Amino acid sequence: xxxxxxxxxxxxxxxxxxxxxxxxxxxxxxxxxxxxxxxxxxxxxxxxxxxxxxxxxxxxxxxxxxxxxxxxxxxxxxxxxxxxxxxxxxxxxxxxxxxxxxxxxxxxxxxxxxxxxxxxxxxxxxxxxxxxxxxxxxxxxxxxxxxxxxxxxxxxxxxxxxxxxxxxxxxxxxxxxxxxxxxxxxxxxxxxxxxxxx
Length: 198
Fold this sequence. Notes:
Blueprint (H helix, E strand, L loop, with lengths): L1 E2 L2 E12 L5 E14 L4 E6 L4 E3 L6 E3 L2 E11 L5 E12 L4 E3 L5 E4 L12 H15 L3 H18 L5 H28 L1 H4 L4
Antiparallel strand pairs: 1-2, 2-3, 2-9, 3-4, 4-7, 5-6, 7-8, 8-10
Helix pairs in contact: 1-2, 1-3, 2-3
């Protein structure tokens, strides 16, 4: 579903209440945070208003789940297209409880993302760090260092006017775009490892 430039959907999430210790299923809204189709990595997060009440004790559970997702398309024997999604690198900052999901593979006919979805500096660094940890390839360190230099310039740019902010945003887009080819090359080189990553 689209709303004000945000693509969001609902998923059932199993959560254990921190007050009573009982587990319940909650329907929680998720949305795209950032990502890049060229790399096939998308960061997903719970919506800001993802707050529920434990049905057993009334404790408020504020869901704050973030994870990365990859998607692979294929065709079934009957010719129908399908998308297999893999979630990985989950972080859970949920207050009032703890969650077990999402952390799985899923299959759908297709997965939609916003056309303007892109990585920002913070999420690009997080992705690069995760990739470096999994692959042990120092090539990711070189990419990170190159991007860090551009982020230092970005941090000093003015943001007093709309024109300043637009120029700053454009600089961030171009800075991240400049490392995408090398990132993609490194990701492709380690695809066998990344497909097994959880």
